[in-house]
Amino acid sequence: MRKLFAILLASVSFTSAFAQITSKKNNIVNQAGDHLMIQLGTNIWNGAPDSVSSRIKGFNRSANVYLMLNKPFKSNPKLSAAIGIGVGTSNIYFNKMNVLIESTKSTLPFIRTDTGSSYKKYKLSTAYLEIPVELRFTSRPDNPNKALKAAIGVKVGTMLNAHTKGSILQTASGAKLNTATVKQSSKSYFNTTRLAATARLGYGIFSVYGSYNITNIFKDGVAKDTKLLQIGLTISGL
């Protein structure tokens, strides 16, 4: 989370400076630009086998931050095209299951830990550097904070990191063994390039977003075809 907040702070600073410089040259920046997008949502693994999906628990949160360049159409300023760059993250939490991403086996091991020791908190996290592209609509280009907004698009990304993290090791009965945190990192089982379809709908600076992977999370043959669905809230502005 510290890295995410650092990225967010840098994004806000950069975008504010960009807007101030550009607004002196071009009034486009003042038109519903949504040059900064912050997305907070939940993750769903679509297609995961029951043996895995039944062990996914809680609120599997995600956080995405994007810097965008927005170009309104001269023929209709309510429509615009946008392209940007940013970081997209996801977290999947498991109950009494370990995902051995550092294994050398031909298939990714999902290991149940019902009868032995297990981690009270265990998650699989991924982060991607992404380029989102959107076709946008705003009902009031002159007043974006009081405008209906909609967008459809795609985003392509390359994996920055994949890791698991377990903490608070306990016995099968729930007795605490230790509070050490164990982290393992590896990209070997993952499709390191991803393509996703996106959509947003909202009013003012708030909108609901959805993102669905066209590509699989994992490489062919190492796990069942599984695609990521994200649903959440977008806060946009500048």
What would your notes on this structure say?
- The chain has 238 residues and is mainly β.
- It has one domain (34-237).
- It is built from two helices and eleven strands, in the order αβαββββββββββ.
- The strands form two sheets. It has an eight-stranded antiparallel β-barrel with strand order 1-2-3-6-7-9-10-11.
- The model is unreliable at 14-30 (pLDDT under 50).
- Average of the residue pLDDT scores: 89
- Structural class category: mainly beta
Q: Kindly provide the radius of gyration, computed on alpha-carbon positions and rounded to a whole number of angstroms.
A: 20 Å
Domains (count):
1
Shape: elongated
Distance between the termini: 23 Å
Strand ordering within the main sheet: 1-2-3-6-7-9-10-11
Q: Number of DSSP helices?
A: 2
Helix content: 10-25%
SSE string: HEHEEEEEEEEEE
Strand elements, count: 11
Stretches where pLDDT is under 50 for at least 5 consecutive residues are: 14-30
* Beta strand %: over 45%
For the largest beta-sheet, the strand count, sense and barrel status come to:
8 strands, antiparallel, barrel
Topology:
Elements: H1 2-23, E1 36-46, H2 50-53, E2 61-72, E3 79-93, E4 97-99, E5 110-112, E6 118-138, E7 148-170, E8 176-185, E9 193-203, E10 206-213, E11 227-237
Antiparallel strand pairs: 1-2, 1-11, 2-3, 3-6, 4-5, 6-7, 7-8, 7-9, 9-10, 10-11
Keywords:
238 residues, mainly beta, two-stranded antiparallel sheet, 11 strands, single chain, eight-stranded antiparallel β-barrel, 11% helix
